[in-house]
Amino acid sequence: MIEIQNVTKSYSGSKKAVDTLNLTIPDGKIFGFLGPNGAGKSTTIKMITGILPIDEGTITINGYDVTQNPIEAKKAFGYVPDHPDMFLRLKGIEYLNFIGDIYEVPKEVREEKIESLTKTFGIYEVLNDPIQTYSHGMRQKIIVTGVLLHEPDVWILDEPLTGLDPKSSYTLKEMMREHTRKGKTVFFSTHVLEVVEQLCDQVAIINNGVLEFNGDMSDMKAQFQTDGSLEQIFLELTNHE
């Protein structure tokens, strides 16, 4: 579970990128986090993961405060960023072993999971190649494999399907469903609204740093008294200054 309480962040000291955000991402659900460009979505994710400091408020992951207990909080989640261009000079297998070392994944478990996951995602044959030679989709797959390697309770996925081929995209979505069936957490950010409508149990929409909606699709349609698509409701919610 992720708890965001009264969180505020500003870059210039004037306009707030995130303004007094309160949000609970529960266990056992795929939680979709939506917003137009510049809405505060990426800022929120970077505060959750500890990349950016929080100006005001608190964020906890599985009970660990990300500011007061950053190591324990980081052990509890796996993060797929929207740009998977990291550790490019490492070979794929070097990167995965690096992740395995950080999270103390036993050698036997690690080897089995690396083989299984990379074969599932179709990158097993390129593990000895530098990541800088990978396509965008392959880089995305190696990052996702690294996240799954240590089996964190909380998945934080920022545009994880970008660049994935249809088979890998389907596989990851099934993994997300299976993860929540085990009572664990998936926090999922994307611009592809059809995927959110198909996949997510609960949706939050942020705009201009302020939470505009939080609930499931039936709540949303009841609130807006419409049978329209998520796309139509999203545009209605966010089409203002």
From TrEMBL:
<keyword id="KW-0547">Nucleotide-binding</keyword>
<dbReference type="InterPro" id="IPR003439">
    <property type="entry name" value="ABC_transporter-like_ATP-bd"/>
</dbReference>
<feature type="domain" description="ABC transporter">
    <location>
        <begin position="2"/>
        <end position="233"/>
    </location>
</feature>
<keyword id="KW-0813">Transport</keyword>
<dbReference type="InterPro" id="IPR027417">
    <property type="entry name" value="P-loop_NTPase"/>
</dbReference>
<dbReference type="InterPro" id="IPR051782">
    <property type="entry name" value="ABC_Transporter_VariousFunc"/>
</dbReference>
<keyword id="KW-0067">ATP-binding</keyword>
<dbReference type="InterPro" id="IPR003593">
    <property type="entry name" value="AAA+_ATPase"/>
</dbReference>
<dbReference type="GO" id="GO:0005524">
    <property type="term" value="F:ATP binding"/>
</dbReference>
<protein>
    <submittedName>
        <fullName>ABC transporter</fullName>
    </submittedName>
</protein>
<dbReference type="GO" id="GO:0016887">
    <property type="term" value="F:ATP hydrolysis activity"/>
</dbReference>
<dbReference type="Pfam" id="PF00005">
    <property type="entry name" value="ABC_tran"/>
</dbReference>
